[in-house]
Fold each of these.
Amino acid sequence: MRSYYIRTFGCQMNKHDSERVAGVLEERGLVPSPAIDDADVIIFNTCCVRETADERLYGQVSSLKALKTGGRPDVIIAVGGCVGQRDGELVFAHAPHVDIVFGTHNIHELPALLDAAESGRRTASVLPSGDRFASDLPSHREDAWHAWVSITVGCDNHCAYCIVPSVRGAERSRAFEDITAEVGRLVADGVVEVTLLGQNVNSYGRDRYGQPRFAELLQAVGSSGVARVRFATSHPKDLSPRTIAAMRDIPAVMPYLHLPFQAGSNRTLAAMNRGYTREQYLSLAASIRDAIPDIALSTDIIVGFPGETEDDFAQTIDLVERVGFEHAFTFIYSPREGTPAASMSDSVPREVVQDRFDRLASLVQTLSYDANRRQIGLVQDVLVEGPSRRDPTVLATRTPHHRLVHVPVPDGASADALAGRILVARITGAHPWFLSGEFVASTV
Ligand code: 5AD
Ligand code: SF4
C-alpha cells in the first residue's frame, strides 16, 4: 500500500490543515508512514511567519534530494501551506526535486495534483482566495480525543509586520450551522476537547450580517456536550465584554486566554498598526481578571520592531510585569518581504535585540515559574493527552488553565488507553515550564 508522511511547521491552523491533508490522502487509499524516508508521498505543510521556519523548510526539502536521486525516483514531494501560497512556482526554482506546490486555499485539489505528479507532471496550483473551509474536508485527527475546528480563515487586520493576510487572504467566517454540526459529530465520535481556530476568533461573524457572533458560538459549542472548549487567537481590539461573560459563565470554556499584545509602548503599537493603546490593553486585562479571577493569561510579544528604543522596550517589560502573564511566547522581529514593516528604516542592531530578548525571556520564565509554584498542593481536573514524549513512564496531562502536568503512569494502566480521560491530580512539584503531580487515588 502507498504511504504518506506529513511534516508540519508553524501554527495551530497548519496542524488543523495537516489533519485535513491526511484525511484527503487516506480517502485516496494512502496509509500513514512512521518514517519520512519510507513514505511514497511526502508533504511539507509550511509556515512563513518568521524567517527561521522558512529557512528550515528549504533546508529539509533539499535534504530529501538524495532520496530521489538515490534509488527512490518515484517518491512524490509536495510543498503546501503558507510558503506554497507565497512562492508558487518559485518553489521549483529553489528545490527542483519538488513535484507539487499547493497553497492555503486548495487542499481539496490534492487528489488531482497527485494524479498529475504520478503521471510525471510537475504542478503548482495556488488559488488567490477560496470559499472552501478545510474543516469541511475529511480529517485524520492526530489525537482521537481532540479536534481543531476552524471558525474563521484569513485576517483583515494588516499588522505592519505580518505576512499572514497575504498568504491566508481576507477574513471569512464559517457558517454557524456548519460549525455546530461539526462539533456535534465530533462529540458523538468521542472528542472531549475542541479548539476553535481563527487568526482573530473575536471577529467571528462580522462578515455575516445578522448572524451569531463569537459569544453565541461559544455558548452553542459549550453546550454541545464537549468537556473542554479552547480557542485561539484573540485580538485585543475585538474581544467583547459579551465574550468575557461567556467565558465566565460557560463551564466547558476553559479559564485560559491567549491575548497577544505584541509591544508595550504606544509608539510601537501605532507603528505596528495594532489598533489599541497600552492603556486599553491594561484595562482589558484588568476587566478579564475581574470577571474571571483565576484565569491564566498568555500572550505573544515581538522584540526589536523597527525603531524600538530602550524606552519602548522598558514599556514592554512594564506591561508584562503589570499583567503578570502566566505564559508568554516571545519572538525576535523578522522582516517579511511585502509587509509594510519590511521597508521601515531604523532597524534595531542585532546585539541590542538579542540582549532585550534575553531580558524578556528571563522575566517570562520567572513569571511562569512563580505561577507554577503557586499550584503546588492544588487538586485539579487534568485531561490525559498520552505518554510524555520524553518519558513513556510518565503521562502528559493538562489542567483547565492549560498547564502541563507530568504524572507517573499508574501501575497496570496503559498510557494510550488513558488518553482523553479527565482525571483528578494533586500538584506536587513545579518547574519553569511544567508541573509534576500524582493522581488522587480514587480517580484511576
Ligand atoms: N516577526 C516576528 N514575529 C512575528 N509574528 C508575526 N509576524 C512576525 C514577524 N514578522 C508573531 C506575532 C504573532 C505570532 C503568531 O507570531 O507575535 O502573534
Ligand atoms: Fe497577523 Fe495581526 Fe492578523 Fe494576527 S491579527 S494574523 S498578527 S495581521
Amino acid sequence: MLNDHHPRKRFGQNFLHDPGTIERIHSAIGARPGEHLVEIGPGRGAITEGLLRACGALDVIELDRDLIAPLAERLGALGALRIHNQDALRADLCALAPSGAHLRLVGNLPYNISTPLLFRFLEQLDCIADMHLMLQKEVVERIAAAPGDKTYGRLSVMVQTRCAADSLFRIGPGAFTPAPKVDSAFLRLRPHRPERYPLSDPALHARLVAAAFAQRRKTLRNSLGKLVSPALLETAGIDPGQRAETLAVEDYARLSNLACKLDAKTGHSQAENAE
Ligand code: SAM
C-alpha cells in the first residue's frame, strides 16, 4: 500500500497530503487532455492522480523502487501511467518527447538535490514547454529575485537568462508528511521562446556569473579580474567599480558575448588578457 510507505530522508521524501494545496497546484498547472506532462518524483501520487485524470496519460520518473509497484497498482487504471524507475539527474527528458514536441515538467522536488535538478532541466530546455516546481521557499526567492534584491545571485541570473520565473504561492510545512523544517513555494518557469538573451558561449557565461557572485562584496574589477579586463567591462557599458548584484541578466549576457567575440578575434581568452 502506498500510504504504508515509510518516508525516506535520503530521497528527500516529504509527501503532500493537504487537499487544498494539491488543488492549488493542479489549477496552477491547468493540465489539459492530450498535453504531454512529465512528473519528477511522484512519490505516493499526491499530484500524479489529478494530472493523470486531466491528461489521460503521463510519464513519471521516480528513484525509489519501493514506490513503483504501489503507484502502478493505485493509479494505473486511471490512464496510461508510464513509470520510469530512474534517477531524474540522469534522465534524458527529450527522449520522452517526439522530435520537436515540448513537455510540461512538474515536480515537488526532493529539496536535497533541487538545484542540480534545476540545472539539469535547463540543459534540456529545447524540449520543455514549461515547468511547475515545488521548492524550498528560499530557493524560489533566489530564482525569481531582481537585481538589487538581497537574494539576487548566480541562480537568478542562470535561470532568468533562459526562462521567465514566477513565484506563485507559498506552502507551509503542515501540508507535508513528514513536515519539512522549511517553508516551500510553487514556481513557474517558462522558457523564453525565442531566446531573449542568446549566448555565444554558455560555458563562458556560466563561469563569468559564478566568478562575479563568488565574492559578491567585491567590485567586478576584482571579482572578474581573472576572466575579463576592466577595459572590456567598460566596452560593455559596465562600470568596473560596480558589484555583481547591480548587474541585470542582460548585462551578464552582453558581457560574456563580448568576451567571447574578443577571444575569437584575438585567439586568446580574456582570462589570459586580464593577467
Ligand atoms: N510528488 C510527491 C508529493 O508531492 O507528495 C513526492 C514529493 S517528495 C518531496 C520527492 C520525490 O522525489 C520522492 O518520491 C522521492 O523518492 C523522489 N526522488 C528523490 N530523488 C530522486 C531522483 N534523483 N530522481 C527521481 N526521483 C527522486
